[in-house]
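job 3f2a | input accepted
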Amino acid sequence: MDLEKQGDAKSNIETWHNKDNAFAYSGINSVFSFFVCLSFQCLGVGIITRDIVISAIIPSIVAPCLFYFFLRNIRRLDRSKEAQRESQGKYNALFNRDLLCVYIHDFEGRFLDVNEACLNLLGYTAEEFLSLKFAELIGEDQFPEAIEAFEEIIRDGSAKRYTTFKIKKKDGDFVWVETEGSLIYKKEKPYAILGVARDITHHRIAEEALKESEEKYKELVNSLPQIVFETDENGMLTFVNQKGL
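job 3f2a | predicted structure (245 res):
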């Protein structure tokens, strides 16, 4: 009887040991399959179900390697998303600046996007502005300069100098802006131009007022019967009126 009891006990121990191993393997397989499913879903590889993974025989030596591979790719994907969010944040910070007009238009001059600063300056709603073309905001006399600036951006990737335009507002008034632009890309191909404009109307008005004042001064001194002349700090003659010629 003692031998039989010992045999039964040994058999029970082996049975429970096998069950424990099976349970442990099942637990490890379940946990691993969960991470594999999660990894595939994060990487955008369709829908991988737990049953599909469990049904495959994964050797115990290969499993940790695969787990490390998927974990590394998840971390790489996280870093990529973080860099993308950072880039988007910088773009939004530039686009939404109140002091600068920022706009996007295609190679035909059709506006694709615009910030609030630009809308406030010109008096348009977003819907109205996005129905316009760049050529509708400037006079025909400025077309050659605008075409030259566009061609330079498309050819070189960005403008090498500022370009000044007289822009027509919605109410018919005009503002002067100083612009620069650069190409923007979609799927590694250029598809539009990002423009940044600064309002220089007050500066331009001051320049024109000074120029007008100088012209009036010259008209006045040229009408005098006396000789009127000007020299620089070195004594060099810089101006003389008609009487002195």
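job 3f2a | The beta strands are 101-105, 111-114, 163-168, 174-186, 189-199, 229-231, 237-240.
job 3f2a | closed
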